[in-house]
Amino acid sequence: MPVMEVEGFAVPMAAVQRWMPLGRDVLLRGDRGSGKTTVLEALLADASRRGRQGMLLRSSGSGPLSALLDHASVPPRTSDETALTAWLTEELAGRRSLLLIDDLDRVDAGTLAVVRRVLARTQSVLVATTTVDPLRRPTAAMREVLADRAPAEVRIPPFGFRGVANLLGAVLGAPADAGLTASVMAQTGGNPRAVVALTDAARAVGALDRVDEMWVDAGTLDEVPVDTVAHVFLSGARTELVDALELLAGLGPLPAETAGRLVAPPLLEELVESGRVVSLDVAGAGEMVGVAPPAVARAMRERTSAHRRRQLANRVDAGVGSAILPQRAQEDELSTVLLRDTVGDGDEYWRWTAELAGLIHERAAVEESSLRAAWLEAPSLRTANAYLALLMRRPAGDQLRTVFETTRPTECDGPAEYLAHGQYRARWRGWEGASPEEIDAEIRTCGADLTEFEALRDLKGDLLAQLQEGADPEVVVAAPAAASAIRSFRGVDVVVRAAALLESGRPEHAVRVCDAHDLADAQPEPRHYLAAVRGIALAMAGRTEEAERWLRRMLDAAYDAVDSLGIRVHACALAEVLLHSGRTRAAWRVVSTALRLGPAGPIETTFYRRGLTVGAILQAQAGNVTLAQVLVRELDKTPRTYHPLLRSMRVLAHVVTVATEGDAEGAAQTAWQAGRRYAEEGLLQPALMTWAGGTVSLTPARAEYVRDVLARTDIPLVEPYIQLLLAVSERDVDAAVAALPRTDTAVAPQLVRAGQELAGPERAAPGVVLTGPAAVQPVRRGSARAEPLSAREREVAVLAQEGLSNRLIADRLHLSVRTVENHMSRALRKLGFGGRADLLGWREP
After folding, report:
1. What band does 398 get if pLDDT is binned at 50, 70 and 90?
2. DSSP H/E element including 282
3. Is residue 71 domain-shared with residue 107, that is, in the same domain?
4. What pTM, to 2 d.p., does this model score?
5. Of the candidates 55, 62, 60, 5, which has an alpha carbon nearest to the alpha carbon of residue 35?
6. Residues 165 and 144 reside in one and the same domain
7. Rounded to an integer, what distance in angstroms lies between the CA atom of residue 617 and that of residue 821?
8. Rounded CA gap, 649 and 614, in Å?
9. Does one domain contain both 24 and 122?
């Protein structure tokens, strides 16, 4: 596979090639197996194509001059330093020749002495790789080579989702589905050599299946022997380092202060520097450390004998007393790293997310093991429910079936345990693909009164039907939260009401429901879901900046708590908002964070599927059709939840991918039919989004239907795209010109391009401020003109038009920032604008 085709190699290649024209040496730093050698080979090939002299030396043991003597080009009988120096000087005599050295820290001292003399005699640029910090742990010979060279340092980041997907496709000879890609990435941390090692091991033990020309996880990837992965990272490591990893892996993530009392600080520091131990600040617990990547931790645990485990347990008992957790300054927030426009040569994003995924995977494995042990000891409904709350976050099909089939109620189990267990069973069966009738028949045997469960299950459908029939949304907003003695049910009705209002096309009402209820005493799932619905509703209401701030705050809080559910939910929701804002690169980085956590189980399916949809749309629009198809296939095979909180918009991922493949007509027809089905169910917001994303062809009857749906909603973010869709279908040039400035090519490329073609190159383009007749605001919801602004809204709009921030406007008008945000949101909505930038073309009446 060409090196530049892999996501993980593009960054270091580009960074090295920026330094080389300046004559600056470069030191490539990366983990074992990260692809350092591959990058060097690509640089050598590039130098050859450019007619530039180059030489690649590799470590060949500790013998004197071994790296030079083992080179294929060394002349016969050239064995002493003088002759080798003369030979290498001649090989690099050209201007700006290139000397590449792989594993500089492992090359013998004699070879490096020759290299020092040759570099002094030639104009060669040195590019070398290393796994050690050149300022902290260089070998003596390495230090001498670098002493006067002052090289630039470039980091090789782990692969992201696309890089792992490409690599798996190359290794397996056919694409891997998204679930397999995510699982491999989570276990290996994105290290390419570890990816290959784990894949080979999986194939050797039959853990992979090939279905419809695509490789999938057969359900046993977590049980594949990972000794080969451990060798990738630990071959050649000192015994004391391996012993320290064995101890830390057996304990799972633990406070850094405790780890420092069990492992000598210099050893722990060396493990952190090498990436074998990662640390993260956890809210309420301080700094936590764990072994990375997860496959290494699992390998160390599996290799530990029972006798050795007892020895380690005694060591822990003797060495750890009551630990006082240190207070440390908070590092950069996760969302800051994800959304940073300019990343360093090592691409900090990939390092952060690889470490995060590894720590989450390890923490979940340890917690799950503890809960499983408690359930095995006493398999009651109570212990089963505690185990299921964690186990159902991943696709543990066989384990879940075992829990449900072997758990038996005990006299200590009350009505709450019966009902909670019945709810888990219903969600599991729905995730497996059982029909509603099969699920109902099974859960009625659970021995609990299911009235409350059934009411919650049917609530969203009832609300959508009522709103479809003309019910006042204010009644839905004002409804009090239902009281429940079952903690897992608390707050669920609030989340469902907010989701129903959002998908019926009333995002502002959905936001008000979210703001009116505090779910502090609810379980994590409804709390995270309500926060995510609030963020998406804010975006749909045209308040995209506020939505981004809110979801970033939620994501950062989940990161601080190392909360896998929260990270998945809020990363997927934030990616969706970024996609609607036209920030596609940031959206892919954020959704990759969620995908890196691995495939979801019954509990996390809603936002996992929405994340797959966002990812497929992003990759299809970027021209990466193969990866988009992989994500769409994962969507198709992922079991639908029995009653999903929000629709996954799976059809939109299909439509965009098919259109990118060249079947625009077929995609448009699919989009129309799917949108019509959504609208008939009262899901007006998904209907409008599907029609706009699919660039459907509207006959007069269809156009009238779309206008009717639009008139029954108030979705400022979507409205300009529907107005543009209508304009394109009806060949209304003025309407297209009016709508284009409030659209973004990155959001709906086919539709916007069609609008541009209709308007012509001289009349409009997305984001362009228009004057004259074209600047007339588009008609909203069938009204004759835009709704008039209040005096305060007009003041805020005028000051924003002058370029003042919300903070400055608040100071000028002696208001709170929140009040200014509310006035701004209402003003933009009344004017039909999608954002503050549209105010540049507004003229105050």
Report:
1. confident
2. strand 277-282
3. yes
4. 0.66
5. 5
6. no
7. 31
8. 9
9. yes
